[in-house]
Amino acid sequence: MGQRSGRPAEGTGVCITDGGVETDLMFRRGVDVPHFAAFVLLDTAEGRSALRDYYTGYVSIAVASGRPLLLESPTWRANPDWGRLLGYDARDLERVNSAAIEFMADLRRDHVDAVGHILVSGTIGPRHDGYSASSEPHPDVAFDYHRPQLAVFAAGPADLATAYTITHIGEAIGIVRAARAEGLPIAVSFTVDADGRLLSGIDLAEAITAVDEAAPPDYFLVNCAHPNHIASAVGSEPADWSRRIAGIRANASTAGHADLDAAIARDDGTPGEFAAAQADLFDRLPHLSILGGCCGTDERHIDAMVRETSRRAAEFAPGTPTLEDQR
User: Fold this and answer.
1) Homologous superfamily of the 15-316 domain (CATH)
2) pTM of the model
3) What are the pLDDT digits (tens) for 285-327?
4) Does residue 224 have a known ligand-binding role?
5) Which residues have a Cβ under 8 Å from the Cβ of 167 and sit 6 or more positions away?
6) How far, in Å, CA of 92 to CA of 167, rounded?
7) What pLDDT, in 10s, does the model give residues 163-172?
8) 295 belongs to an annotated ligand binding site
9) 15 marked as binding residue
10) Domain residue ranges of the chain, discontinuous segments joined by +
């Protein structure tokens, strides 16, 4: 398979990824996504078609902008606890996680000539509800729990794995150790609430520092929070710990987690405002190399974000090619 890499190739610039797959499918496209588990769509022709249509929109943005693309598999809830709710046993989960990575690899083969550089990431999520801080997994328990899913990714054509919407330090440490045991590059994405803190009450600096001391991932991200909430978490000036953040996948809505959890309709905000708030984070996080969306976002938000970040880069560095110039 060759050397795996968790980052875009050197010189390719900021990599884009998709928006909020579950909220887009459910609220915008009318697709049934039980328990927010998009992986079940891989088991039907109609579901695979819906996923293909979804991802193709982001391929188009990558092609138009000249940016590399990170394809994230729809496997955020393809783990034992959520699988059990949906009638998937261990063998079923192994099959569907493998199928997900092959599905993403097929998309890469179909579009790599047009895009130029595409990474495939196996997505994992927390064992429990990502909006709950009620259960702190021990690193050893998290290691055993998440390793089977990571092993499937490592056995296939995934370039890396990314753990999204993580709330607990112990679970993050266990996930990183499990990925290392499988020889798979790994990124960890924490989520923060409207106050900029993790739902467990600790601040983002403490969480990243603690994980780095115990089991450093390849890099960190922050997801499932509005850019303004992320800005509160990272502060106004870059620091050693915040330089470890390479990716942002933000929500369109300014609502906190409690309100989002109770929502019965998608709050997609305004793409222009979302894009401006995302671009503002570049001043605070100079090492950002991956930009995408989470709940409530779709192609409109990502396209607006790509255009806004390109426009600002051109303003601050006259002569720098814009995304339009790179077409």
Assistant:
1) Homocysteine-binding-like domain (3.20.20.330)
2) 0.91
3) 988 999 999 999 999 999 999 999 888 777 654 443 333 333 2
4) yes
5) 126, 130, 131, 132, 133, 190, 191, 198, 199, 200
6) 27
7) 999 999 999 9
8) yes
9) no
10) 15-316
